[in-house]
Design a protein that fits this description.
With 129 residues, the protein is of the alpha/beta class. The chain is built from four helices and seven strands; from the N terminus they run αααβαββββββ.
Length: 129
């Protein structure tokens, strides 16, 4: 089966889950991340998840007091990285309808220690589809 068809089928399955289902299933992922030594020492770029991805919102808010949290912003064909300064300072991005931070631009990409990126699906050997 082609990757595109597999992704389509998985998206349809994911649509059946409620927000509470997603939060519950995502909790075990974030628990593992939080216990990871690299995460414990790191600054983090945490992706603000889309509806069909591992739910990141609570995780981002939880760690925003202790770590520098950065989120991506799509500006035309460019991707910017901005500081996360709380949910109240996010606004919906028009193209993908993902809330994005409106705060300060982050440009020193070499200082990023960890980037967490949810995916739609992964194969048995953990390759992102």
């Amino acid at each position: 089966m082609e990757k595109k068809e597999i992704r389509k089928q998985i998206r349809e399955i994911k649509k059946q889950y409620t927000l509470e289902d997603k939060k519950r299933m995502s909790a075990s992922v974030w628990q593992q991340v939080e216990h990871n030594e690299v995460f414990q020492r790191a600054r983090v770029v945490a992706y603000w998840s889309m509806d069909d991805e591992v739910f990141t919102h609570d995780f981002v808010c939880k760690w925003a007091e202790e770590k520098t949290i950065l989120l991506p912003c799509v500006k035309g064909d460019e991707l910017e990285i901005r500081y996360f300064d709380g949910r109240e300072k996010l606004c919906p991005e028009e193209g993908y309808a993902i809330p994005e931070p409106v705060g300060r631009l982050f440009t020193d990409l070499n200082k990023i220690d960890v980037i967490l990126v949810p995916g739609v699906a992964f194969d048995r050997t953990l390759n992102r589809l």
